[in-house]
Amino acid sequence: MNQNLSAWGHLEKLAWRDVLIIAAVLILARLLILVVRWTLRRAAENAEPHRRLAILRISPILRLLIRGAAIVVIVPLLVEANRSQRSCAERWSRPGAGLYAQRLREQCRGWAGNSAGKHVSAR
To answer: What is the pTM of this model?
Structure first.
């Protein structure tokens, strides 16, 4: 039972700004779907009879694409809220992660004030 409750724990870390952005994305996606459906229906009514079904067939495909785009925008916000609680050093402290991770660690040290703006030179 505790596992089920802890699965939703990352949502507690969301800021109101993130919630408002997510709500705005969902509302805009819904409005865009309504506009697209209305436009396609009007286009199908005014089109030649043999083109009507082809035009109406586009509607569910566009709805799926719009909803997919909304999910692509929303998921990084949820993941970012979960990752922002960890410190910079915790994110990049894996040993043997390579030159890229070393550069990121140096940047983290620079942000934390531990470094005097030193940067790792690229080879």
So the answer is: 0.58
